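Page 47, continued from p. 46.
Same chain as before, 161 aa.
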Amino acid sequence: MARTGEAETSYRVSANAVALGEKGVLIRGRSGAGKSSLALALVEAWRRQGDFARLVGDDCVLARIRGGRAVLSPHRAISGLAEWRGIGILSQDYEKSVVLALIVDLEPDEGRAARPRLPEPEELCSDFHGLHEVPRLSLPARETERSVAAVMAFLHKVSTK
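Result:
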C-alpha cells in the first residue's frame, strides 16, 4: 500500500520477468524472439550456481512504480504458467514480485549488424515508465545461450561494483 502522498502507478508490460537472487530481469522483444526461452534458461543457469531463481511472469508482467523503483509481478490471469514452445503452456513455480534491476531487449537480426560492437555507456541504460537510467542490455533474439552468458556476466559485474 502506498504511503500517504506517495503515488503508485501500475503498467501492464508485454514481457517476461525472472527473479535472479534479489534482482529482477525484465525481458522484452517481439513474439518469437525467445523471451520465454531466455527466462527459463536464466532461471536454470542461476540455480546451477546454487542461487535462488524463479520465473516471475511469462508474456505479461505488471510493473508498479513506487519510491523510485519498479516492482515486477505476474499478471494474475497467467501467474504460474509458462509457454514452452513446441510443448505448450505448463505450470511453473513463480515468484510473486521482484524489484527491477535489468531490462533485456531481444533485438531482431535486421539492424543488429549496424550496431557498434561496444555500446556507448548511455546505451546500457533506459528510461522505464518514469524511472531513469535503468540498466539495459540489447541482445540478439533467439540466441539463448549467448544471452544467458551476457546477462549473468552483466549482473555479476553490477553486483561486484
